[in-house]
Amino acid sequence: MILSFKGLIIAACTFLIIGLFHPIVIKTEYYSGTRYWWVFLLLGLICIILALFVADVIISSILGITGASFLWSIGELFEQRERVKKGWFPMNPKRKQEYDKL
Question: Which residues have CB under 8 Å from 50's CB, separation 6+?
């Protein structure tokens, strides 16, 4: 019997990547708002394209998951702005005027 740990490795990496993106979205919105959403788009597309060209299943999966997380985080960045407006998360006092316009 041969054990394959690839699935478990991919699952653990997925868990860590998704967990990592939560504070990234929160910090990005806090310090710069939504103006850098395009960076998430660019990095997401780069990761997904790279995943197509990598032969190793684990690395390709991690790139694909990271790319999808970047793309998903675009929507979360705008949702985070709404959560801040509702008072669920702290507002950056240096950017208060940006929330007043919305």
Answer: 63, 67
Per-residue pLDDT at 39: 98
- Cβ atoms of 90 and 81 closer than 8 Å: no
DSSP 6-61: HHHHHHHHHHHHHHHHHHHHHHHHHHHTTTTHHHHHHHHHHHHHHHHH---HHHHH
| CA pair distance 29, 100, nearest whole angstrom | 15
| Full-model pTM | 0.90
CB 30 within 8 A of CB 90: yes
At 93, which amino acid appears? P
